[in-house]
Amino acid sequence: MPAFLERRLIEVNVPKSPPFWSAGVHAARRPYLLARQQIAVALRGWFTAQGFIEVETAALQVSPGNETHLHAFATELIGTRGEHRPLYLRTSPEFACKKLLAAGETRIVDFARAFRNRERGPLHHPEFTMLEWYRANEPYDVLMDDCTALLTETARAAGAKEFRFRGKTIDPLVTPERLTVADAFARYAGIDLLSTVRGGRGDGKALAAQAAKAGVATAADDSWGDIFSRILAERVEVHLGVGRATILYEYPLPLAALARAKPGSNNVAERFELYVCGVELANAFGELTDVAEQRTRFEAAMNEKERIHGERYPIDENFLEALARMPPASGIALGFDRLVMVATGAQHIEQVIWTPVTE
After folding, report:
1. Can you say whether the dihedral through the CA atoms of 137, 140, 141, 143 is positive or negative?
2. Are 125 and 357 in contact (CB under 8 A)?
3. 203 within 8 A of 225, measured Cβ to Cβ
4. Could you give the CA distance from residue 229 to residue 211 in angstroms, rounded to a whole number?
5. Helices 224-231, 204-213: crossing angle, 10 deg rounding
6. Pairing between β-strand 177-180 and β-strand 60-61 as defined by DSSP bridges
7. Nearest to residue 312, comparing CAs of 126, 60, 58, 88?
8. Contact 269, 252 (CB under 8 A)
9. Angle, helices 336-344/23-49, rounded to nearest 10 degrees
10. pLDDT values of the chain reduced to their tens digit, one per residue, 359 residues
């Protein structure tokens, strides 16, 4: 029998999981979905009490975001005269929210639907909910306090005494640990990370040498950022958010993305991530407002994207124009579906999404 027919028979004979709308599957998922609703109501109440305005930003954007390893869904707008204009489904509402800060809003929150291609698994879904909020003229440390408060609000809404995922647990009412990235790499991997950062740039050879001593394999064409990610995934993340949440802060400047440098430092940025049970829940920035620097970072990220993935996304010039008028601000993106997962003990993201994307 030809090989392609064998493959086709195998595909036909593989039993398919029943759809999410089948009665049994829905009944098993419904407690998680009801908890999701309760958590959303509680968090909306918290944001309202803090003086935030809930906004609804557009999903269609000129640029989906300019990060090296994020992949977008492309589409096009067809005008009334038949003209075609490329657009993308956003990977985050960040650009739109910052335009609202430039317009004069000071505290905003968006329960945004976000879209990312090439991502599917227990913690990833092509369409998901990104909870983003921004504070104009407030330091990014305040966002750390926000995270502490939201974990408490979520636990109360879900009736959860602990958050759990894959055998790890935390007490959501305990104040999160605050740990610098450099200290985490030293503690869990024996690596002096900042010795490999000079003038805001990463030295790939120096980090590769330390990774080898720590038993982390690297490839010859790995960039400094690639090696950083390998060490983080293999040696560090498993220890984060165990017993209590962890706020991993002061990311090295080569990984600043849209964050500004820490005042007085040319090696670290005002960026932190929130971890619970080894899972990254949120990513926060003291927002960069230097247009020239932001353009340089976007172009560098797109050059790297083209080198690795063979594609690049346009830069939203309208966003950069707005950035020049945006006040100093802090912002954070939190994976709402993941938050529901750890609060309810769900093991797969599709357990907490009302209508998962059908494969």
Report:
1. positive
2. yes
3. no
4. 11
5. 30
6. unpaired
7. 88
8. yes
9. 110
10. 344 334 433 444 546 789 999 999 999 999 999 999 999 999 999 999 999 999 999 999 999 999 999 999 999 999 999 999 999 999 999 999 999 999 999 999 999 999 999 999 999 999 999 999 999 999 999 999 999 999 999 999 999 999 999 999 999 999 999 999 999 999 999 999 999 998 888 999 999 999 999 999 999 989 999 999 999 999 999 999 999 999 999 999 999 989 999 999 989 999 999 999 999 999 999 999 999 999 999 999 999 999 999 999 999 999 999 999 999 999 999 999 999 999 999 999 999 999 999 87
Tokens of 12: 């036909």
Structure tokens, 127: 């369409």
Helix (H) or strand (E) holding 273: strand 271-276
Give yes or no for a contact between 84 and 77, defined as CB atoms under 8 angstroms apart: yes
Residue type, 232: L
- Identity of residue 308: I
Count CA atoms closer than 13 A to 302's CA, side-chain side.
15
The answer to whether 108 and 97 have CB atoms below 8 angstroms apart is yes
* Cα separation values, 160 from 45, 154, 288, Å: 18, 8, 37
Tokens at residue 187, please?
A: 């503690």
Please state the pTM of the whole predicted model.
Answer: 0.93
Q: Which residues contact 21 (CB under 8 A, 6 or more apart)?
A: none
